[in-house]
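Input structure tokens:
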């Protein structure tokens, strides 16, 4: 396993992004409430992140490499924010 040491600046940036993501999620929940399909929440979350100036990508296919072999497994990230914070 490779451990990445993040600088204090990077840690602060990641924490700020995470804080903003949580705020966006709360905003979506406050507006929609519980009980809807995940796809509805995801679209609203993408829109809310956009409104807050955060770069997002969704449904990104990620290769699964096991012991140097690409297993061609289907793994998708639901959400990638600012190329730093992801949700699956």
């Amino acid at each position: 396993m490779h451990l990445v040491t993040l600088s204090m600046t990077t840690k602060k940036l990641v924490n700020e992004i995470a804080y903003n993501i949580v705020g966006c999620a709360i905003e979506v929940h406050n507006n929609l409430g519980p009980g809807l399909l995940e796809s509805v929440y995801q679209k609203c979350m993408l829109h809310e992140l956009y409104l807050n100036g955060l770069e997002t990508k969704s449904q990104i296919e990620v290769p699964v490499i096991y012991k140097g072999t690409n297993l061609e497994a289907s793994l998708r990230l639901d959400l990638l924010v600012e190329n730093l914070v992801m949700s699956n």
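The chain has one domain: 8-87. The first helix runs from residue 8 to 32.
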